[in-house]
Amino acid sequence: MLQDTWHKVEIDLSYGELTPLLDWVENNCTSNWNYDIIESAGREAGIYLFFFKEDKDAVAFTLWKT
């Protein structure tokens, strides 16, 4: 039996960076992705986890964000 595998990418985002990032993911990745807010951005950067089902989406996101 095959397990569902999700790729997890942790990133730090400054205040105001989440919405443009979500727009990019929506336009460039498949619908098999999600994210979780670990710590919201405020005066300091927040911590966010992005999950991708597709290998190519995780790679594209990682390359684009670094």
A few lines on this structure:
The protein is of the alpha+beta class. It has one domain (7-65). Helices cover 33% and strands 32% of the residues.
Radius of gyration: 12 Å
Uncertain residue segments? none
- How confident overall, as mean pLDDT? 92
- Percent of residues in helices comes to 25-40%
| Beta fraction | 25-35%
Integer tally of domains: 1
Largest β-sheet summary: 3 strands, antiparallel
Shape: globular
**What is the H/E string?**
EHEEH
For the biggest β-sheet, the strand order reads 1-3-2
Strand segment tally:
3
Helix-and-strand structural type: alpha+beta
Structure in words:
With 66 residues, the chain is of the alpha+beta class. It has one domain (7-65). Helix content is 33%, strand content 32%. It contains 2 helices and 3 strands. It has helices at 18-28, 55-65, and strands at 7-13, 33-39, 46-52. The chain starts with 6 loop residues before the first strand and ends with a helix.
Please supply descriptive tags for the structure shown above:
66 residues, alpha+beta, 2 helices, 33% helix, globular
Secondary structure layout plus pairing:
Elements: E1 7-13, H1 18-28, E2 33-39, E3 46-52, H2 55-65
Antiparallel strand pairs: 1-3, 2-3
